[in-house]
Every structure is written in structure tokens, then in C-alpha cells.
Design brief:
CATH topology: Porin
Oligomer: single chain
Strand order of the largest sheet: 1-2-3-4-7-8-10-12
Low-confidence stretches: 4-21
Structural class: mainly beta
Length: 191
């Protein structure tokens, strides 16, 4: 009985693998799984609740995955790691989660455009200081499908905070809202 159960489990696993391999005949096909990562560097303008605005350099890395729930329509999520380096003061590192929705627009066999919208929740903590941000994002990469099941891309992005809170000790207040734009790269594949 155990051998039969093991055989059925192996057969089911092989069928699942074969089905998912068949689901990825081309980028954008329903059932396709897309592991990817993005990287960006930008210059941000911060508008605090009081005082002058300032410029901050930002480095961002986001590994993630997308799943084509329907033909050309993908949803997914990323882990986000962002390092802010202000003109004055100490740098901070924010970590968080992002959910995204994207749509693949095929240009030809080698190129496509993969615009996505996202919402990210990020947090940071340094000693008694902490903060949270909720950020809306838009990214429009042009993907070059350089080899079967592999792509690299670059495109413009825009991110803006829709909420920001900071806490120092027991005091909580609204934080600065940041906006960033620039070029972002992405690399990935599909299964």
C-alpha cells in the first residue's frame, strides 16, 4: 500500500511538473510563473510636514514573483529593501512587502512591455525610532526576451507615499511623504 501511495504521489508530482512546464510556452500565458527581481537608484524630494524640502538618494532591490492568472494578466508580490541616504543625517534601511498587478503587451517574439501598478508596505526601526510607509508605485519596463524563459528589462518608474508614520519613543506623528522617479531594471524568467 505504501509503495502504491508513493507511486501515485510521484505520478501526481510529475503531472504537476509537466502541466506547469506546458503552461509556460510563452511569456504571458495563463498559468505562467515569473520569478524576477528589480533594482533602482533614484533621487527623491521629501516634503516634510514642516520645514524645507530636501533631497535623498535611494537604492532599492526587490526580489519577487508574478503569476499569470489569465492571458497577459499577472499578479504577485515582492520583498522590498530600500536604503535612504539623506543630504544630512544618517541613512536608514526600510524593508517591506509589495503586491502588484501587471499586464503583458507583446511587441514581437523578442520584446514586450510589462506595465505594473503596486502597493507596498514598508517599515524601519533604529533604536527607539521607527516608521511605516504605504507607497503606490507604477513601473513600465520594456522586456527583452533574450533567450527562452529569460528576460531583462528597463523602464521608467514612479513611487509616491500615500501614508507615512514615525515614532520616537512613545511619540507618534505623521512622517514625511516621499516621491521618486527614474529608471529601474528588472531581470527574470518564467516557468
Amino acid at each position: 500500500m505504501k509503495k502504491m501511495m508513493l507511486s501515485l504521489t510521484v505520478a501526481a508530482g510529475m503531472m504537476t511538473f509537466a502541466t506547469s512546464a506546458m503552461a509556460a510556452q510563452y511569456f504571458g500565458q495563463q498559468g505562467g510563473i515569473v520569478p524576477l527581481g528589480s533594482f533602482s537608484y533614484s533621487s527623491n524630494t521629501s516634503k516634510p510636514t514642516s520645514g524645507d524640502s530636501s533631497t535623498t538618494s535611494t537604492l532599492n532591490f526587490s526580489p519577487g514573483v508574478r503569476y499569470f492568472v489569465a492571458e497577459k494578466i499577472a499578479v504577485g508580490g515582492d520583498l522590498t529593501f530600500t536604503k535612504f541616504t539623506p543630504e544630512k543625517g544618517d541613512s536608514t534601511t526600510w524593508t517591506g512587502l509589495k503586491i502588484a498587478g501587471a499586464y503583458n503587451i507583446g511587441i514581437n517574439n523578442d520584446w514586450s512591455v510589462f506595465p505594473e501598478v503596486s502597493i507596498a508596505y514598508k517599515s524601519m526601526s533604529i533604536g527607539d525610532n521607527s516608521g511605516t510607509k504605504t507607497t503606490f508605485g507604477l513601473f513600465v519596463p520594456f522586456l527583452w526576451h533574450a533567450a527562452p524563459h529569460f528576460f531583462i528589462g528597463i523602464g521608467p518608474f514612479y513611487n509616491t507615499d500615500i501614508s507615512s508614520k514615525v515614532k520616537s519613543g512613545s511619540t507618534e506623528a505623521d512622517g514625511s511623504t516621499d516621491s521618486a522617479y527614474g529608471l529601474m531594471t528588472t531581470i527574470g524568467g518564467w516557468l
